[in-house]
Amino acid sequence: RKTYKIAVLAGDGIGPEVTDESVKILKVIGEAFQYNFQFDYGVMGAEAIYETGNPLPDKTLELCRNSDAVLFGAIGDPAFDNNPDAKVRPEQGLLKLRKELGLFANIRPIKTYASLIKKSPLKREIVEGTDIQIYRELISGIYFGEKFTEENGEYAYDLCKYSREEIVGIAHLAFQDAQKRRKKLTLIDKANVLDTSRLWRKIVKEIAPQYPDVELDFMFVDNAAMQMILNPKQFDVILTENMFGDIISDEASVIGGSIGLLPSASIGEDSGLFEPIHGSYPQAKGKGIANPIASILSAAMLLDYLELTQAADKLRKSVEHAIESKYVTIDLNAEQHYSTSEVGDFIADYI
Amino acid sequence: RKTYKIAVLAGDGIGPEVTDESVKILKVIGEAFQYNFQFDYGVMGAEAIYETGNPLPDKTLELCRNSDAVLFGAIGDPAFDNNPDAKVRPEQGLLKLRKELGLFANIRPIKTYASLIKKSPLKREIVEGTDIQIYRELISGIYFGEKFTEENGEYAYDLCKYSREEIVGIAHLAFQDAQKRRKKLTLIDKANVLDTSRLWRKIVKEIAPQYPDVELDFMFVDNAAMQMILNPKQFDVILTENMFGDIISDEASVIGGSIGLLPSASIGEDSGLFEPIHGSYPQAKGKGIANPIASILSAAMLLDYLELTQAADKLRKSVEHAIESKYVTIDLNAEQHYSTSEVGDFIADYI
Ligand SMILES: CC(C)[C@H](C(=O)O)[C@@H](O)C(=O)O
Ligand SMILES: CC(C)[C@H](C(=O)O)[C@@H](O)C(=O)O
Predict the structure, then answer these.
(1) In which residues is substrate bound (chains A, B) (predicted)?
(2) Contact list, B194 vs chain A (CB under 8 Å)
(3) Could you identify which of A161, A341, B66, B319 might form a hypothetical disulfide with B157, taking C-beta atoms 3.0 to 4.6 angstroms apart as the criterion?
């Protein structure tokens, strides 16, 4: 039996407590389905800066390189956010890890759960039935282009650069996913202003004939930010560049009523990293109130990535069961709620 | 009596029909308040490309330079949107006009009207009472930095650049407005990733002590895109760079229930341009169904800019009266509605 090596980087804030639940559940899955999982822990983020001075120690990077997949918690610490002059920052660890592992595609599913729609800031008729898959390019664009600040702070710049190769890779993934879904792909860009956006449009148009069953359309990012709220059901698969994807996917995360439910996968040629999209939520750290479901659903995406599809489906069903049974944390039900680990146990028991 | 010279650029799509209503109303205001307005028309956008090959003919630019204010309609034409290879595009005219006139601050008020809240995709309790003023930097950043596309389409780039001077100007305007309002200023940036954002933060922090009564806070743009939907009432004045402002202000435009109500002002050292934030809406062109209120409220901002405050207030009251009387276009009331010019007449009559 193959042993699947999973690197666990719990990170900052509520990262460790939600990741603990995912590991607990993956262990139960391993027993139930007869898979060998090996969990190896590494430090990362603010935690790693405090310990080693480095947000991504070499040891952690090596661990990730030698693993089949990375389960990641969260990153960020108010001590750094409130100090924009800090030279070393937790986020650098995550950005470097994405780049070093070549995780070019960040995939975020946006779905609604019937019993939670009432928690959405949007009206039921607007959001009910929303089912979007966002593909965000993750290792290029303005995040990774040349940066410069003049020493007296007279000016600064950031370069947004894209190559054909960088666009082609993720575009194929998005088209392929659209083929398995409702066969619609929307490229979000700002092609009326940016050269990089015009390049995205050009290349995506060139690729489109290889997927004749997929309907391709284009939307300017400002309009997309409106359409996401006016009519999210119009979207199936969304493809976009790094910065626009950061903004649009966080915006979309409000649709279902709780960001505490939303997982993500970051995929490369031979690596995958799986993390909840909520951040480190430092106010909740250590209180046992954090919702573990986003991390648990990220573990389900990890199982998909390892092609353990049956287990992934079972895990998703168990999560749905917990939500329908109202066995949830305080963010989803203020009246009757359970702790982070109680919710984890409930899901584990159902498997 | 001083003559106020107003350049009128009606532009594309529904631009001409909504601008007509504003001019009609400004004429009534001129009579009622004894102001001399002189209206001079110029072409711009797709209309200007068809006529002259140039989206911003020199004659139009000269006209704007020699006027006290510019009343602008809308820009954009599907013939160009569907052809990303077009070398000459309507939007270039607007971008060039902004740059040439030095319109560094784009100001967008986001408000709700009690009788229209039911039209919002968001829940009443989320949006009721929202009152935000967005200051978007308009003539720098990635819009105007160096651009390049390699001739075979192998790569492309866009440079986002900001200087101290560019940030200082708009920051003071935003702080001053906050002082007149609820005394809160939120800078939206991505300072955990971008050098330009860190420069914005640094400079805005330096300026803050000059406005000790204003509470300053910072928000990452991805989080802001969530917060705008989760809790828009937390915002008073928002300050942000060009690209983020484009996205966040369009997103915010959904709050009140109709983008057909939202005006904007673009202000420079000695120029001001006033335009509805809805675009050219080509599907509605010539049908007499376009909502003229966004343009009319832009005319009110124009009056404010000319320091004709009494007239501006009167005009805003007349618009509120029309909305409360349900004397509105089809976008606001499908059951009983009036045409573009009927709504304009109703507002003019009330003045
Ligand atoms: C922490 C930050 C650098 C990161 C990003 O902007 O990519 C986060 O917002 C995300 O979306 O994963
Ligand atoms: C038409 C386009 C270039 C413009 C912009 O992006 O600035 C528009 O979206 C706006 O916000 O005024």
Answers:
(1) 98, 108, 136, 222
(2) 142, 147, 158
(3) A161
